[in-house]
Design brief:
By secondary structure, this protein is mostly helical.
């Protein structure tokens, strides 16, 4: 831990930004962002001008990055005491002293304010006030996960729900009416919820003993490793069922998105095979690599299918 706290607090702003970006792993936006992009193209009204599409897409992407930054900073602030005690997380920026709690709070508030400002642009430029009205409730909802592990083993479902808001929020941003006549959007959100909850259960296996020792709740802490793995498998089966439903319900999806569905099924099977074979040693590959491929490939093929139609 640094001995010169004054020096740390007066570090250049660029250095603090790099510390924040590294600690919350901005690259992990890949889990939810592709589904928001897919939802943009699903929700677009027929005949939308290309300029409007690009403008709305840019705002949605900015909002996604800012919202995730807010949520992850809230998580780091809320969990700073537990992170300091947990050997796996003790090297994070706040417990290690590379970032003060005050700076983390300031960065979180700035991210939240910028998110609201970006959402407001949809009212200014596209006469859509809903993102402005819903911005604060969304920020509150996605921050909830950080506290749920204190009272329920279903915290993984809450995390899945936070990320599942991405396609719904993106649809509201580009065309609020799409939610009433595009049921595939809801099924994609359900897929994201179950998929994220399933791989978060896998991730939580790393902290099973620690969670039990400090009274934090999780499915691994409640069910043990074997029970948690079966719960993760069940959640991923639900995710695949929702994905197949979305593919079948929207006539704009064809063979290209169907290929994405098949690849997703294969990747999830590989994910659980890696976990079964390598145990905790396979978590990084199962959690980060394979799930990043799932979201990127599925959304890319989905958007390609929609554009070809």
């Amino acid at each position: 831990m640094p001995t010169d706290l004054t020096q740390m607090k007066t570090a250049p702003k660029a250095g603090r930004f790099r510390t924040v970006a590294g600690d919350i792993k901005l690259a992990h936006s890949v889990f939810a962002l592709p589904f928001a992009v897919l939802a943009v193209f699903l929700a677009l009204a027929p005949g939308e001008p290309a300029g409007h599409i690009m403008g709305k897409l840019a705002i949605v992407i900015a909002c996604m990055i800012l919202a995730r930054t807010w949520a992850m900073l809230v998580n780091r602030i809320a969990d700073r005491r537990f992170d300091a005690l947990n050997p796996r997380t003790s090297s994070r920026a706040i417990p290690e002293g590379r970032l003060t709690t005050r700076d983390a709070i300031a960065a979180a508030l700035l991210s939240g304010a910028l998110f609201w400002a970006a959402a407001s642009l949809l009212w200014v430029f596209f006469a859509n006030p809903w993102p402005f009205y819903l911005a604060l409730p969304v920020l509150g909802w996605i921050a909830c996960y950080s506290y749920t592990k204190r009272f329920t083993a279903l915290c993984h479902i809450f995390l899945g729900g936070a990320l599942a808001a991405s396609p719904i929020a993106a649809a509201i941003a580009v065309n609020p009416e799409s939610l009433s006549h595009t049921p595939a959007l809801w099924l994609i959100a359900a897929m994201v919820l179950a998929w994220v909850a399933g791989f978060d259960v896998i991730y939580a296996l790393q902290d099973l003993d620690f969670d039990r020792s400090v009274g934090l709740r999780s499915l691994p802490a409640l069910l043990g490793p074997a029970g948690a793995i079966w719960a993760s498998r069940a959640l991923h089966i639900v995710a695949l069922a929702a994905l197949v439903g979305a593919w079948q319900l929207d006539e704009r999806f064809g063979l290209i998105f169907g290929l994405g569905v098949a690849l997703t099924a294969c990747l999830l099977v590989i994910e659980h095979a890696v976990l079964a074979r390598r145990g905790k040693a396979g978590i990084d590959m199962a959690f980060f690599t394979l799930n990043g491929i799932v979201s990127t490939v599925l959304a890319t093929l989905g958007v390609a299918d929609l554009l070809i139609v």
